[in-house]
Amino acid sequence: MKKYKIIVLIMISLLITVGCNLQKNNKKTKIISDGTIIDTSEMQHKHCSRKGNVQGGSANLNYEIFSTDDKISLLRSEEQVVSNDKNVLKTYEDAYRKIHKNYEGLQYYDAEVVVNDTSVTSIITINYDKINMKALLAIEGEEDNIIENGTAKLSKWLELSKKFGTKCEDVEE
């Protein structure tokens, strides 16, 4: 009987330990790049955001940045315009689609536009660890860019975003 109680106690302990570890792992942000889930467990994670006004609506801008030291590995942006005016939404939808068109065919640059009744959202995921930097710079240009010597720099991104009032915080996962 004593052995049975010890085995049951060990099993319960294992279930709790495994359950807690699974729960912890489920909290990790999942980033999909070019159809593959990227392991971000060893990366630093920052969440950055700002709000603003656009003519006839408002804007919510959110960025998830995964980096190691000063090197950005992944950047996911969600830029949303909210309005009750269908013309405002259509203008931003067209603008986002036009911008995204420049990047068509560029592997590891994933972009989509999501439209609903009161908002339009541009979602972009850039895998800087795998993207062709020369092709990216050919599209974006070298001026006012966060890329230095073929590497996307966190410090440059933070400096540039700060000019626009973006606030960032570290995410502990």
Describe the structure.
The protein is α+β, with helices and mostly antiparallel strands. 34% of the residues lie in helices and 38% in strands. The protein has 4 helices and 10 strands. The chain has a 6-stranded antiparallel β-sheet, covered by helices on one side. The protein has a two-stranded antiparallel sheet with strand order 1-2. It has a two-stranded antiparallel ribbon with strand order 8-9. Residues 1-27 have low confidence and may be disordered.
How would you concisely characterize the structure shown here?
This protein is an alpha+beta fold and 173 residues long. The protein is built from four helices and ten strands; from the N terminus they run αβββββαββαββαβ.
Question: What's the structural blueprint in terms of helices and strands?
Answer:
Elements: H1 2-26, E1 31-33, E2 36-38, E3 44-54, E4 57-68, E5 71-82, H2 86-101, E6 109-115, E7 119-127, H3 133-140, E8 147-148, E9 151-152, H4 154-162, E10 167-170
